[in-house]
Write a structure and sequence with these properties.
The protein is of the alpha/beta class. The chain folds into 2 domains: 5-60 and 409-424, Roll (Urease, subunit C, domain 1); 63-391, Alpha-Beta Barrel (TIM Barrel). The protein contains 12 helices and 17 strands. It has helices at residues 45-50, 83-94, 110-125, 166-177, 190-199, 222-228, 242-258, 289-297, 314-324, 357-367, 372-378, 381-387; strands spanning 5-12, 17-26, 29-35, 59-62, 64-69, 71-72, 75-76, 98-105, 132-135, 204-209, 232-235, 269-271, 301-305, 329-331, 403-406, 412-417, 420-424. The strands form 3 sheets. It has an 8-stranded parallel β-sheet, sandwiched between helices. It has a 7-stranded mixed β-sheet with strand order 3-2-1-4-15-16-17. It has a two-stranded antiparallel ribbon with strand order 6-7. Strand 15 (403-406) and strand 16 (412-417) form a beta hairpin. Helix 3 runs parallel beside helix 5 (190-199) and helix 7 packs parallel to helix 8 (289-297). The protein is globular and about 65 Å long.
Amino acid sequence: MSEPFAVRGRIVTPSSIIVDGAVIIDGDSIVWMGEAPQAQAAGYGAEVVAAPSPTDGRYILPGLVDTHCHGGGGSSFPTATTVEAMMTAVWEHRVHGTTTLVGSLSTASPEDLRRQGQMMADLCDAGELDGIHFEGPFLASGRLGVTGMLPGDSPADSLPTEGLSAKEREERARAVLGSQDFAQVQPPNPALTRELMITTRGHTVSMTLAPEGKRAIGSGSVAEVLIENGAVPAFGHTVASAEFMRGAATWTREKLGLTPSEKLRCPRYVVTHFFNGMQPFHHRHPGPMLELLADAAGGGCILELIADGEHVDLSAVRNVFELVGRDSVVFVSNATAATGMPSGEPNSDPEDPNLHLVDTVRCAWKGAGIPLTDAVYCASVQGARILGQTNIGEIATGKRADLLVTDENLYPLSVYRYGTLVASVPKNYSD
């Protein structure tokens, strides 16, 4: 039988920061939390006295919930050949405070999607992954990268190509087109979608699709198959017009509202890494962004943001947060195999930010000026809502004992999952 113990520090809750706080863990659950001096009255005085006194300004955050992650530690969910290799990515993020993780696949052949989805479903059954996200293959062929650029969108596109080698021209073109496999992009296919739902045994959380594709939305569509199987459509990698996006949003909201709640994890659809992979805004050709902002402000969708200052400028992160509020924003890492890899190692990419979710929280707090309580909320409570899980995402009595203890700058010191210490001073932060 387990013995209760205390973790002390500044507790970050959805509404406030408890400066001198204590969290009491017994087994896999939080049995009490609050101001440390009040623990004695609650019957946990001895546990608080036995816990190290937090003299270093440390924070206690709920374990973070990442609903869009492609890999880490040199391993990629889309390309891993074994569940063991996938676990490398899981652990890379777990030891940095992401205690709930959805693995993301990219556009690939149906055979590859089935195989990778099957392995990821096995990890979900084992409790190591918490869901599957398909990013593709039903995307707009001109919006395949996270940058979302087409020729002419970027100042780099105006640079002369004269004198460049064939390899240099190819690299520039690839930077514009993006990382999704152009050859495997296909029109929306409800039958394939249904097959993938069966293959993943109810573990699919979401699928990114361009809503303008034929049979993407509407009766008998990919979106309908997703909703009927408990997953949510995630609009992204799209060239949809403003008018089309408004119609797609209206249909999706209505369909979600008509579907019995027990079949759905989340009653709201998701927008995949907002801004990235989308038609840019222009005042004469506004594209989908303003419509999605308006819908998020009205509670229709939840906007994913990669709040790292690279994928999205931090002023834009702040503006979106101020316009739609924290209940319509979820922070995601969008991490790849390069995440956590030392410079020069295989799969490392010094030019790609590839951050852990806690790093995006720090960027939003320190760089965008978003209050810490709200930044943590967007990386914990919101992800839990998308997953339809009520026992995670918040430090509260009765919740699962998932905790991330950090220093005063949000660099991880220790991580608890189900009340068990899984990491102490994670790699990359021990210097």
